[in-house]
Amino acid sequence: MRKRILLPLLLCWMASHAQSPVQKIIDSLKLQLHQKPDAKQKAKLYGDLAWYYNMISMDSALVYGVKSLDAAKSLKDDKMIAQALSDYGAILYTKGDYDRAMDILQQCLQIRTRLKDEEGIASVRFKIGNVYFRQFALEKAMGHYMHALQYYEKTKNAQVVGTLETNIAAVYHALKNYPKALEYLRRSEKYLTQTNQESELANTIVGIGNVYFSSHDTVRAYEHFKRGAQLAEKTQNLPAMGTAYNNLGLIYTYRKQPQKAIEYITKSLALRQKVNQPAEVASSQLTLAINHNTLGQFAKAKPLLLESLKVFEQDSIRDKMGNVYVQLIPVYASLGNVDSVNYYTNRYLKHVETNLDDSVVKITAELEAKYQTEKKEKLLIQKEAEAKRKSLLLALVSLFAVFIGLVGYLIYRQQKLKNRQQEQEHELKLAISKIETQSKLQEQRLNISRDLHDNIGAQLTFIISSVDNIKYGFNVENPNLTSRLDRISNFAKSTIVELRDTIWAMNSDAISFKDLELRIMNFVEKAKTAREHIKFDFAIADDLAQVPLSSVTGMNVYRTIQEAVNNAVKYADAGKISIAVSRVGERIQVVVSDDGKGFDVAQADTGNGLKNMKKRMGDIGGNFAIASAEQGTTVTLTFTA
Question: What does the DSSP assignment read for 487-543?
Answer without folding.
Answer: HHHHHHHHHHHHHHHHHHHHH-SEEEHHHHHHHHHHHHHHHHHH-TT-EEEEEE-GG
